C-alpha cells in the first residue's frame, strides 16, 4: 500500500521532508482516481503481477532500438499479456482472461507496459468497441469471442489519404451485389487508400472499414463493414488487399499505423456492421434512428481520450513536482543555501495548476462517461435519442480542451525540469509525443471546436425562442435578462462569469452571422468568415463546463474533511488560474472589472503559497508506480543524479572509448590539419 510504503522505502532527504507532514489522507485521493477502493486494490495487484514479470521488461531501452525491434518488442509483450491473462489463476477474481486484459488496457497500466504505443491498442480500443457498440446481438455472438481470444486481431480503418475530417467525403465504396448477397469493397482512387489506422500495417488480420454504402446506384453514406485482410495462420495479405505500414511518426512508433487498398474485395452481406442500419438480402436499406449512430465508436473513443490524457498529465506532474522538490538552484537570498526550485513562485505556478487540472479533467470526464452510458442505455432500450447532441457536443468539447491543455501542460512540465527534462530518460519527451497526436486523432481539434460552436449557435437561437435546451447549455435560458457584471468572486460567481462571457460572445458572433446573411452571403460562407470567433466561444464554453463540473463534484463529495479541504483549494486554484488566463475575454464581455482581476491575481499567489507544502504529497497520492513513470527525474526515491548518470551509461556510444566513426571520419580530418 502506498501509505505504508512511505514509512519503509528509501528516499532522498528533500522528499523525506516533503512527505513528513501531509494534511490529508493520500489513500482516499488514490481511490478517487482509481474509481473506488476495490479498483485501487485490483490495480495494485495487477501491478505486482506485471512489474515482477521479467518477460514484460524491455531488453534494452526502446530509444536504442530500431523501428523493427520496437514493433517486435511491443508485439511480444502485448501477446504475452494476452496469453498470461487468459490463464493466470490470480486474475480470476477480476473476471480473468479478456475481462482482465480489457481492465488493464483501460487503465494507466497500459502506459507502463507499452511505453511508445502498442500494436494491439486499436484492437482493444476501437475494434472491440465497434463490435460491442455497433454490431447486432447475433453478430456479436459470432465476432466477440474470436476477437476477445485473439483468434482474430482487428483495427478501425476510417481515415483515407484524401479525407480524415470530412467523413462524408470518404471514397472507399461498399457496393451491394444482390445476386451473390455480397458487398464489393473497393478503393477507386489513390486518395481512397486507408491511411493511419493503428495496428493496420502488419498486425491486424481483420478491420472495421468505413465505406460509402451503394445499393442499386444510390449512395447511403459512410457505414462500417468487417473485412478480412490477412489469411488465418500464414497471415499473408488476402487477394485484392494491399496493406503495409506508413513509416516513422513523431511518436507512438510501435503502433504499425498502416495503409490499405481494396481491389474489388467481396465480403458476405452479413459482414456489414448492423446494429443501427441494415441491408436486407433483397437490397432494402433499413435506416437507423439517427444517421450519426454509426459514428458511435468515435464518440466512445473521445470519452476514453479524456481519461487517457489525464493519466499522461498525472505522470508528467508527478515527475516535474518531485524533481522540483529535489532540484536546488540559484539563490533566494544572497549567500544562503540554494533553495529547492519549488520555492520559486514561478515554479509553483508551473506545477500546481497542472495538478489541479488533473482533478478538473477527471471530474468532467466522469460526468461525460455517465452521459455516454445513459445514451447507450437509451439506444439499447430503443428509447429516444434526445441526449445525442449533448453527448456529441460535450465529447467534442472535452476531448479538444483536454488534449490541448494536457499537451501544453506536459510541455510546461518539461520546461520546468530545465535541461534534464529534454532527456529521453526523464520520459517527458515520450509522454509529450504520445499525447500531442490526441489533438489530431479522433477528430482534429479545430474541427471539433466548430462542431461545438454549431451546437452553441443552434442552442442560442433556441433559447431566444424559449425552446428546450440541452443540460450543458441550460444556462442560456437567462441570457436576455442577465446583466453581464458579476459581483461576487466565489467559485459559483466565477462560473457565472464564464456563462455571461459565452453568452456575450455568442451574441456578438450571431449578430455578425446575421449581418453577413443580410448582406447576401451564403450561410456556409458567413460561418467560415466567423469561424475564428466561433472556435473562441466554443473554447470558453468548454472551460465553463469543466469549472462547473469541478465545483459540482466537490459539492457532492462525502469523504474526509482533510481531503475535502485540499480539493477545495485545488478547485479554487483551477478556477482562478483559468479565469486569469482568460481575463481578456472576461473583461471584454464585462463580466469582470480590472480591480476584480487584480484581486484574483493576489489570491492566486496566496493559493500557490498555501498549496506549496502539499505539492509532493498531492502527486504521491496519484500513486503512480515507478514503472508507470519510467523517469530518472520522477522516481519515488528522488535519487535523480545517480539515475541520470546510470542511464547515460546505457548509451551504446559509451560501449567503447573511441568509436569506429572517429577512425572513419574525424581522424583523417584531424590528421590532415596537423
Ligand atoms: C475509470 C474508467 C476509465 C475508462 C477509461 C477508458 C480509457 C480508454 C483509453 C482510450 C485510449 C485512447 C487511445 C486512442 C487511440 C485512438 C486512435 C485514433 C483513431 C482515429 O482517429 S479513428 C478516426 C477518427 N476520425 C474522426 O474523428 C473524424 C472526424 N470527423 C467527424 O467526426 C465528422 O465528419 C464531423 C466533423 C463531425 C462532421 O460530420 P458530418 O457528417 O459532416 O456532419 P455535419 O457537420 O454535417 O453535422 C451534421 C449533424 O450531425 C451531428 N453530428 C456529427 N457527428 C455526430 C456524432 N458523432 N454524434 C451525434 N451527432 C453528430 C452534427 O452535430 C450535426 O447536427 P445538426 O443538428 O447541427 O445538424
Ligand atoms: C497517431 C494517429 C493515429 C491515428 N489512428 C487512426 C486510426 O486508428 N484509424 C483511423 O481511421 N484514423 C486514424 N488517424 C487519423 C486521424 O483520425 C485523422 O488524422 C484526423 O481525423 C484528422 O484528419 P486529417 O488528417 O484528414 O486532417 P485534415 O482534416 O486534413 O486537417 C488539416 C487541417 O485542416 C483543417 N480543417 C479540415 N477541415 C476543416 C473544416 N471543416 N473547417 C476548418 N478547418 C478544417 C484542420 O483544422 C487542420 O488544421 C490517426 C491519426 C494519428 C495522427
UniProtKB/TrEMBL annotation:
Active-site annotation: 442 (proton acceptor)
Keywords: ATP-binding, FAD, Fatty acid metabolism, Flavoprotein, Lipid metabolism, Nucleotide-binding, Oxidoreductase, Peroxisome
Record carries keyword Lipid metabolism: yes
Subcellular compartments: Peroxisome
Stretches assigned to the Acyl-CoA oxidase C-alpha1 domain: 295-457
Descriptive protein name: Acyl-coenzyme A oxidase
Binding-site positions, FAD: 159, 198
Organism: Meganyctiphanes norvegica (Northern krill)
Organism domain of life: Eukaryota
Amino acid at each position: 500500500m502506498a501509505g505504508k510504503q512511505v514509512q519503509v522505502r528509501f528516499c532522498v532527504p528533500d522528499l523525506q521532508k516533503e512527505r513528513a507532514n501531509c494534511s490529508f489522507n493520500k489513500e482516499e485521493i488514490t481511490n478517487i482516481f482509481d474509481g473506488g477502493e476495490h479498483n485501487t486494490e485490483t490495480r495494485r495487484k495487477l501491478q505486482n503481477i506485471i512489474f515482477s514479470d521479467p518477460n514484460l521488461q524491455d531488453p534494452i531501452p526502446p530509444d536504442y532500438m530500431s523501428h523493427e525491434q520496437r514493433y517486435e518488442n511491443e508485439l511480444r509483450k502485448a501477446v504475452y499479456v494476452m496469453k498470461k491473462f487468459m490463464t493466470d489463476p490470480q486474475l480470476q477474481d477480476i473476471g480473468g482472461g479478456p475481462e482482465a486484459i480489457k481492465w488493464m488496457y483501460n487503465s494507466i497500466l497500459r502506459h507502463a507496459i507499452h511505453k511508445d504505443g502498442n500494436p494491439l491498442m486499436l484492437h482493444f480500443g476501437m475494434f472491440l468497441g465497434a463490435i460491442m457498440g455497433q454490431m447486432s446481438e447475433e453478430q456479436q455472438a459470432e465476432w466477440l469471442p474470436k476477437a476477445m481470444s485473439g483468434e482474430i486481431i482487428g483495427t478501425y480503418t476510417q481515415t483515407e489519404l484524401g479525407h480524415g475530417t470530412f467523413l462524408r467525403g470518404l471514397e472507399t465504396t461498399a457496393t451491394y451485389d444482390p445476386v451473390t448477397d455480397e458487398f464489393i469493397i473497393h478503393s477507386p482512387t489513390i486518395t481512397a487508400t486507408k491511411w493511419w489506422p493503428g495496428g493496420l500495417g502488419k498486425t491486424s488480420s481483420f478491420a472495421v472499414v468505413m465505406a460509402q454504402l451503394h445499393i442499386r446506384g444510390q449512395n447511403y453514406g459512410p457505414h462500417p463493414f468487417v473485412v478480412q485482410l490477412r489469411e488465418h495462420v500464414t497471415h499473408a495479405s488476402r487477394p485484392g488487399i494491399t496493406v503495409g505500414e506508413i513509416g516513422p511518426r513523431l511518436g507512438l512508433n510501435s503502433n504499425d499505423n498502416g495503409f490499405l487498398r481494396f481491389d474489388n474485395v467481396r465480403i458476405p452481406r452479413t459482414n456489414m456492421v448492423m446494429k443501427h442500419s441494415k441491408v436486407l438480402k433483397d437490397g432494402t436499406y433499413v435506416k437507423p434512428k439517427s444517421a450519426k449512430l454509426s459514428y458511435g465508436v468515435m464518440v466512445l473513443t473521445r470519452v476514453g481520450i479524456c481519461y487517457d490524457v489525464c493519466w499522461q498529465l498525472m505522470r508528467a506532474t508527478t515527475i516535474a513536482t518531485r524533481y522540483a522538490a529535489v532540484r536546488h538552484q540559484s539563490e533566494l537570498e544572497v549567500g544562503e543555501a540554494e533553495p529547492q526550485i519549488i520555492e520559486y513562485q514561478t515554479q509553483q505556478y508551473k506545477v500546481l495548476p497542472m495538478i489541479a487540472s488533473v482533478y478538473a479533467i477527471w471530474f468532467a470526464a466522469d460526468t461525460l462517461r455517465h452521459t455516454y452510458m445513459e445514451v447507450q442505455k437509451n439506444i439499447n432500450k430503443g428509447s429516444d435519442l434526445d441526449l445525442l447532441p449533448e453527448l456529441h457536443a460535450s465529447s467534442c468539447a472535452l476531448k479538444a480542451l483536454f488534449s490541448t491543455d494536457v499537451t501544453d501542460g506536459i510541455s510546461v512540465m518539461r520546461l520546468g525540469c530545465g535541461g534534464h527534462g529534454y532527456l529521453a530518460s526523464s520520459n517527458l519527451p515520450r509522454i509529450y509525443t504520445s499525447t500531442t497526436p490526441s489533438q489530431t486523432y479522433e477528430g482534429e481539434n479545430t474541427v471539433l471546436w466548430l462542431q461545438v460552436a454549431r451546437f452553441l449557435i443552434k442552442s442560442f437561437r433556441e433559447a431566444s425562442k424559449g425552446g428546450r435546451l440541452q443540460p450543458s447549455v441550460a444556462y442560456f435560458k437567462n441570457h436576455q435578462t442577465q446583466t453581464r457584471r458579476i459581483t461576487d468572486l466565489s467559485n459559483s460567481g466565477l462560473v457565472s462569469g464564464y456563462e455571461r462571457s459565452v453568452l456575450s460572445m455568442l451574441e456578438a458572433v450571431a449578430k455578425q452571422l446575421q449581418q453577413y446573411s443580410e448582406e447576401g452571403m451564403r450561410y456556409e460562407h458567413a460561418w467560415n468568415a466567423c469561424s475564428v470567433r466561433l472556435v473562441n466561444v466554443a473554447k470558453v464554453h468548454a472551460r465553463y463546463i469543466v469549472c462547473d463540473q469541478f465545483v459540482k463534484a466537490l459539492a457532492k463529495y462525502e469523504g474526509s474533511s482533510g481531503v475535502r479541504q485540499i480539493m477545495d483549494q485545488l478547485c479554487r486554484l483551477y478556477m482562478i488560474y483559468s479565469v486569469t488566463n482568460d481575463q481578456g475575454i472576461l473583461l471584454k464581455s464585462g463580466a469582470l472589472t480590472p480591480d476584480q482581476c487584480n484581486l484574483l491575481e493576489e489570491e492566486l499567489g496566496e493559493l500557490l503559497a498555501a498549496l506549496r507544502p502539499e505539492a509532493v504529497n498531492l502527486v504521491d497520492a496519484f500513486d503512480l508506480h515507478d514503472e508507470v513513470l519510467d523517469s530518472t527525474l520522477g522516481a519515488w526515491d528522488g535519487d535523480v543524479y545517480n539515475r541520470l548518470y546510470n542511464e547515460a551509461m546505457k548509451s551504446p556510444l559509451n560501449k567503447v572509448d573511441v568509436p569506429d566513426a572517429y577512425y572513419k571520419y574525424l581522424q583523417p580530418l584531424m590528421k590532415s590539419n596537423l
